[in-house]
Amino acid sequence: MVHTDEPRVGKDHPLDQIEAEAISFLAQMRRDDLLQDDTKYQNRAKEVLKEINQNARVTRLSSKHSTLKVKNGKPSCDISSHGWTQTSQELEYGIRLAWKYSRKCIMRSQYEKLRLCDLRHVKTSAEMGKVLLQKLKEAFNQGDIQPTGNMIDRKTFDRD
Predict the structure, then answer these.
(1) 92: closest CA among 29, 139, 27, 156?
(2) How many C-beta neighbours within 10 Å does residue 102 have?
(3) In this predicted model, what pLDDT tens digit does every residue of 8-57 receive, in sequence order?
(4) What pairs with residue 68 in β-bridges?
């Protein structure tokens, strides 16, 4: 069994934490010149915060988030969000950062070559099979392997 002290993903977090992490991520993209100017950064930040708040829901958070906080006059400890829909550029930047800072990967020095295949548009298992075979062929690159990650939107994936 592998034990790690890295935080687990996919758990509910308080709304204010999700908002802060999203803005921090976008600010890092701006610092790295992936968002070319401050206007684009500010517009994207507004869009992201709006979507995070639209996706907000009441939920029971884990005990480490159970301290009562007040935001806009309402307790926020039981409010979480499904987050926001990242653009392909944001996803690729995110997976590159995750790979770069992964302590257990011996190939992390190649993080800048990591390519994202955004497959969120694929809706059926038959189409998924075809697309994945094509993307595997592209990643194999006639033996010169191209590091590749595939993004599938599990919320809308239908089996046929």
Answers:
(1) 29
(2) 13
(3) 555 667 888 889 999 999 999 999 999 889 999 999 999 999 999 888 87
(4) none
- The alpha carbon of 86 is separated from its chain's Cα centroid by a whole number of angstroms, namely 7
pLDDT at residue 7, rounded to an integer: 56
The gap from C-alpha 31 to its chain's centroid, in whole angstroms, comes to 18
Residue 60 has what pLDDT? 65
4 pLDDT above the threshold of 60? no
Q: What is the DSSP letter of 64?
A: G
Helix, strand or coil, per DSSP, at residue 158? strand
Q: What is the DSSP letter of 7?
A: P
Centre a 10 Å sphere on the Cβ of residue 86 and count the other Cβ atoms it contains.
17
Amino acid residing at 94 = G
Q: Which two tokens stand for residue 135?
A: 């993307």
Spatial separation of the C-alpha atoms in residues 17 and 135, rounded to whole Å = 35
**Residue 156 pLDDT exceeds 60:** no
The single residue listed with the structure tokens 């307790």 is 75
**Burial code of 5-29, b = ≥16 C-beta within 10 A, e = fewer?**
eeeeeeebbbbebbbeebbebbeeb
In sequence order, the 6+-apart residues with CB closer than 8 A to the CB of 122 are 128, 131, 152, 157
